[in-house]
Design a protein that fits this description.
The protein has 252 residues and is of the alpha+beta class. The protein is built from ten helices and eleven strands. The chain is globular, with a radius of gyration of 19 Å.
Amino acid sequence: MTFCESIAESAPNLDIEREGELVKLPAWNSNAIDSYSLKKALWERITSRNFNGNPVPLKIVSNILFTTFGKVHGDSHKKKLAERGILTVGYRRSSPSAGCLQATEAYLVALNISNLEQGIYHYRSHQHVLTKLDSGINADLSQILCHQSFAIDAGFLIVMSSRFDKLWWKYPHSRAYRSALMDVGHLSQTFNLVATAHNLNTWLTGYFIDNSLNKLIKIDGFKEHSLFVLAAGHGSQDPLSPGVVKLLKATT
């Protein structure tokens, strides 16, 4: 408790707001997850590598972003804890986070989303809006993803980065990295279940060229670094990519 009190005044800014044009998102609604049982989402989730490039409605992307990364508990929750003598510095998402710091940031790579220009966006969790960082995709995504080219046909990618400077503030030792990885794991599972409930196929990877991906989402790679990539879109629930299927047919 003494340690926490000693660092309270030096708390980092937890509400990250990247500079750029703000893009409003449709209001979140819970209809899809209300009508989809947890068991059904768990059983029907499958890693898919066969996307067809059909656009995903922006309202579905909005629901997935909010349910996975949005600020679901606000000031009223902090007030209740304050009444019990507990000072909190973070906010709550639907997934747990070390120290309630929510050190994971979400960057939307819009590939095939209806009513949203293709480009790179940062998701402001505390406001449920996007910040446009770049128009279009001015990089070879397939090369960045180590030639996992099937991902380009997804509706969208979400790059998850970790704000190490947030974690280092409270956990000034190497265990902070373990917390970063666990946070990403929690959010990945939530994303997979929510996207499945919206009838989308999902895929995820930690296999990419770090420096190139950091450059794509415009982060420094030191205080903030990319850790994982999520994808969702329409297509077939097939763990084999079209390229692999074609190769298998040619060898049989």
